[in-house]
Write a structure and sequence with these properties.
256 residues, mainly beta, 16-stranded mixed beta sheet, 16 strands
């Protein structure tokens, strides 16, 4: 039996491609090499007021196999346009706190590690751009365009890698190297089986557009595969990063 993950059909606007407030999702982290669960992610969406405007906030917590939290994240979206506004990440193991604020053509990063703090700003493209922490939401919004591309004219966008930008900021190399042009290719469309049932879905592969970068960068850190449900808002069903598969284990839709 094929399940539907979006409830009643609705127009695929930017707002419709955001999960409804009250939606909850959980994923297990499966190490394919060791064949064991290494942790879990739990997400919850809620409405909040952000400086006088309505925002949708995604709160997530990553835990180890014993359910002890080791990181927490919050992402703010403009509830009407779906555009990202702010991102916060707290690493409980490293006593590290990161805040990214997104403006028109720029990202401001504030980093606090113990008693030390620093701030930097980076100019970014205004179009076809996504920061890594928002990449799933960006690809959901762009899914229609991705599915209509051809092999000779693939979908390409600029991906910002914050972890790399932080490393570059303390070194001698330009931070612009943390902006990587990525190609998105549809590997297949059809029924995809998960722990919460079988669903119509699209499997996408992301990798550097530059052949040189594909050779130089470690594959486990620069190539990713994800599975998005075909039905809006195109919930993430699975994500492969290096040796880890993030597999959906729970989806609770908001009351309608």
């Amino acid at each position: 039996m094929v399940c539907v993950l979006g409830g009643p059909a609705k127009i695929a606007t930017a707002q419709a491609l955001l999960p409804d407030p009250g939606t909850r999702l959980s994923y297990q982290h499966w190490n394919v090499e060791r064949q064991q669960v290494t942790g879990f992610s739990h997400l919850h969406y809620a409405v909040a007021s952000c400086g006088g405007q309505e925002c949708l906030v995604e709160r997530s917590e990553n835990t180890d196999p014993d359910s002890e939290a080791f990181s927490r994240k919050r992402l703010w979206f403009d509830a009407k346009s779906g555009e990202p506004l702010r991102y916060e990440e707290e690493d409980l193991r490293e006593n590290l706190f990161i805040t990214n604020t997104y403006g028109s053509g720029s990202i401001r990063t504030e980093l606090r590690h113990g008693n030390e703090s620093r701030t930097f700003e980076l100019e970014v493209p205004r179009e076809r751009f996504a920061a890594f922490e928002f990449v799933f939401d960006y690809l959901r919004k762009q899914l229609g365009g991705i599915l209509n591309t051809s092999s000779d004219k693939p979908f390409v966008f600029t991906l910002y890698l914050p972890a790399l930008a932080i490393e570059l900021e303390s070194g001698a190399l330009a931070q612009s190297m943390s902006l990587v042009r990525m190609r998105v290719v549809r590997e297949r469309s059809g029924v995809f089986s998960t722990r919460i049932g079988s669903h119509e879905a699209h499997t996408l592969r992301l990798y550097p557009d530059s052949w040189t970068l594909r050779v130089l960068l470690p594959k486990e850190k620069s190539e990713f595969t994800l599975v998005l449900a075909a039905e809006p808002p195109h919930h993430l069903l699975e994500f492969h990063e290096g040796k880890t598969q993030h597999q959906i284990t729970k989806l609770e839709l908001a009351d309608r």
